[in-house]
Amino acid sequence: MPTTTMTQSTKSQSPTLDIAAIRADFPILQRRVHGLPLVYLDNAASSQKPHAVIQAMSRYYEQTNANVHRGVHTLSEEATAQYEGARAKVSNFIGACCPKEVIWTRNATEAINLVAYTWGRANLKRGDRVLLTEMEHHSNIVPWQILSAEIGFEIDYVRVADDGTLILDDLSKLLTPRTKLFGFTYMSNVVGTLNPVQLLTEAAHRVGAVVMLDACQAVPHMPVHLQALDVDFAAFSGHKMLGPTGIGVLWGRRELLNAMPPWMGGGDMIREVHLSGFKPSELPWKFEAGTPAIAEAIGLGAAVDYLSQVGMEAIHQAERDLVSYAMQRLPEVTGLKILGPAAEKRGGLVSFTLDAAHPHDIAAVLDNLGIAVRAGHHCAQPLHERYRIPASARASFYLYNTREEVDLLVKGLQKVVEMFSF
Amino acid sequence: MDLYAEEILDHYKHPRHYGHLETPTLTFHDRNPLCGDEIELELKIEDGKVTDMAFTGHGCAVSRAAASMMSEEIIGKSLEELRGWDKKDIIDLLGIEVGPVRLKCALLPLKAMKAAVWGLAEDE
Q1: pLDDT tens digits, residue range A205-249?
Q2: Nearest-by-CA chain A residue for B104
Q3: Which domains does chain B have, with CATH numbers?
Q4: How distant, in Å, are the alpha carbons of A306, A315, A340, A365 from that of A29?
């Protein structure tokens, strides 16, 4: 297991993390791509997994595997204890009041859809307004657009300034008495901007709007205390925080969750069923129909343990250090334009364009050098339209990345320019 | 890298028939929203044959090279013949191995050309 030290490590150059020890925990970082060591800079899309997570999942399948909440046999009891134990770990990790506020979903997308289809259908009507931002991921736009077509409420958007921050001058106009929900991201997955969550939440609450926070890029990378932020709902995915795919979280204030109708019907979400009807189960199972992703929940629990042991504040500082370094070095590449705000206003990612090459070509050439970056619109097409660019390339960091990897990225981009310049 | 063979890069840097025709007979606009590639294709048709072609748009090296190479090939061909074109024709022109991820980049110009010669509306 890694140890957090406050001493300057010469190898890792991170003031807060022992990166060499951390890297040794991630088996995939040993592999080579096209004959070169993997430089994984696509963490905003999905993170890699430490031994601890992979082992927790195999251990579950090798020693415990059974359905939860059902049998009275030993395996089922152990599986239930581990599965619910993981929920308690996540609850602590995000500053929830209690595990019953933590609803397992497939991912953040499903969590936001859950809110749209249950809270939204029960609380939104024609003439109401929902406020979103221009920098949202598609997963915090499209569910509301689908529901808007069904119900007939209006959607407004907080616009984004050239520097990638939200334009908040007319927030009081956008938050009308008819605005019932304000959905926004904690951190943009494209421009990296960290939004002022508390300020936005206070403004929403002043008009009685409920806040839906997309915390996908925040919970994996910095300390997050959802109760202290005072938001009403938050969504994030396990696979972006060292956990497996197929498990995500909807957190909600229990008064709201209790008042919401259930979403999917089936086993486990009911208290009783008769031919004449059913009574739903209590929280959190009310929203968890069918056999859940048990091994995945346990894997996410192990990921949370790992992250807590390293320390979220230390991870946040290390990523800030890395992104500052990247933003200092990237402009050395001819024709490179960085999207978004200065390093101090962002988390650990940086998106950019190159005059000489399309983002797909950038990513393809870098891949040949063993460097994984994302190219495209990163599921945020409206934000790219706002910048009048079809796509961008993105390097996103996590606790195992180093300054040396940033140097390799810069060198790779210089090669791209060399290849594609007219 | 094979994907960026000299000829592909040459067509990317110096695309043939890039621009507009004065009086196009057929035009078709298509895009690949996933990667943001976009093409505006214009064809001049006389006596059932393509006599000129032009294209504009933006895209990656693979999609632009495919459009440029296709432009050199289709001039002089009949609509009948072009309606029969399929992805093999483009891949052969490119002369490189195109993996599944980049295939849609390579095929965007073909898709636009076929829609044009079949007279399809943009949302069909």
Answers
A1: 999 999 999 999 999 999 999 999 999 999 999 999 999 999 999
A2: A360
A3: 2-117 (3.90.1010.10)
A4: 17, 18, 29, 20
